[in-house]
Amino acid sequence: MKKRKLLFAYFLIIVLSSINLFAEPTFINQYPYEYLWPDHWYYTNEDGTTNVIPAIGGGFIMTSWINPGYEFYEEPQSVFWKIDETGELEWMKQDYNNFNTYIRSIVSNGVDRYYAIAGAGGTYWFGSELFILDENCNIIDTHNYWFADSLDIKINSMQIVEDGLMLAGDKGGGIELIKVDFNGDIIWETDYDDIDTELMLSQINDLIILSDGNFLGAGFFASLPGCLIKFNAQGDTLWTYQQEQFRISSILEYDENTLFAFRSAYDDGQRLGYLMKFDGNGILENEFHINTPINSQTTSRLINTNDGNIVLVHNAVEGEIHKVTPEGELLWSRDYLSDNDGYPDYIGINDKKSFQTENGDIIFCGTTERGGCHHKHKLLRVNSDGTLINNDDELNIQNAKSNISNYPNPFNPTTTISFDLPEESKVKIEIYNIKGQKVKTLANDKYQTGNHQVIWNGTDENNKSVGSGVYFYKMETADVTVMKKCLLLK
């Protein structure tokens, strides 16, 4: 019986390893456009990776588009990447509908469908088109709002609701809201030409669903006033907020009584960023300067983190992320996109540019080498402290990996985790399950130079036995962070 269990354990390790469940949870990987397009496409005007969302069945879907140059004009093309949990590319699709497609927003029902909106633009494109896709991003159906509904609109943001999709953008310069069913057919459509002469000149770039079932949109258009607008499921306006000469590029519901927005404005010839804090009725309570220059193409994303703080992912002079408290105190800043060979780095320009996983990691995407034929689109996964484990500039991963191990593995019910320290350091060692949930803290103290051991007896924080399966042990010191796998087999 013991021999049979042992054989099964090794078989399970091989199978799980083959599907990358044991890989490190943070990464930076790049997915270049090289070889995707004909050689005669000698130049591109490409505005950055646009979206990344959780993929159906696990992993991530990342979208982008390219606007190629040629001696004759070529229509824009879109690319879809399917990436697994470790950042490895599973498949790539391009040239949607053999037509120009700026994929501006994408959502998923989490089961068997994606919905991707392609915006207006190009020579032969009118209005926006909704693509209904299967779990492999193959086209099931489309709905073109110019040809089907005579609407010349540009949809910038989209959210999925119980009975359909909420679309938001502009109609020739002016806010446009549309509710459609899951086939893309319009349920209602509202523009603001007859509501507010200032709002009609703006557009919605970011749309979120609020906890009370209503919606909040934010946007700007050129140098015209930026705006916030709250509306209900029927498209009725509940309140609006406007301010001259600034751009709102992202919004966040922190709790039912607190909203945040990120804006930029010129100050002494430089575009700077500000975090704005509102109450639930759209009254501005405070704003905090984020001390970093902003790129002229303002784009950002605000994320309400699991620890009650806020992560800001945005286009600075180089792509950056920051973590701040709700009171505007800066906790840390990171810049991961520095290998740009002279070109600016960009965070994705559209509304689904980043998100937080269940275990608190931040997923976001960006672009380097912009302006040439061989762009490098990057997907990054960092932990809640902004740590990017395999960024050699920040962490010595090879040394860290060689200095921690556990034995036996597989084990039942006890395993010993051994680690070496080149110098005195505070050490934290934690156990996580395969869902990324913390199971137990084994060590959180200062250790001297040398070899040390801690024992995990297969229990959680309440000393209750956990079930069989794959677990990860994570070690953090002053210099390194590393995570490895182990298998508990009962």
3D structure, described in words:
The chain has 490 residues and is mainly β. It has two domains: 107 residues, Sandwich (Immunoglobulin-like), CATH 2.60.40; 358 residues, Methylamine Dehydrogenase, Chain H, CATH 2.130.10.10. Helices cover 5% and strands 49% of the residues. Strands 1, 28, 29, 30 and 31 form a five-stranded antiparallel β-sheet that branches. The chain is globular.
Layout of secondary structure:
Layout: H1 2-18, E1 27-32, E2 43-44, E3 51-54, E4 60-66, E5 68-69, E6 77-83, E7 89-94, E8 102-108, E9 114-119, E10 129-133, E11 139-144, E12 154-161, E13 164-170, E14 175-180, E15 186-191, E16 206-209, E17 215-219, E18 226-231, E19 237-243, E20 247-255, E21 258-267, E22 270-279, E23 284-293, E24 300-304, E25 310-315, E26 319-324, E27 330-334, E28 346-347, E29 354-356, E30 362-368, E31 376-382, H2 397-402, E32 404-407, E33 415-421, E34 425-433, E35 438-447, E36 450-456, E37 469-476, E38 481-488
Antiparallel strand pairs: 1-31, 2-5, 3-4, 4-6, 6-7, 8-9, 9-10, 10-11, 12-13, 13-14, 14-15, 16-17, 17-18, 18-19, 20-21, 21-22, 22-23, 24-25, 25-26, 26-27, 28-30, 29-30, 30-31, 32-33, 33-36, 34-35, 34-37, 37-38
Which features does this protein show?
490 residues, mainly beta, Immunoglobulin-like, 2 domains, five-stranded antiparallel beta sheet
Main beta sheet strand tally, sense and closure: 5 strands, antiparallel
- Give the termini separation: 12 Å
Q: Shape, please?
A: globular
Quickly give the CATH architecture of the largest domain.
7 Propeller
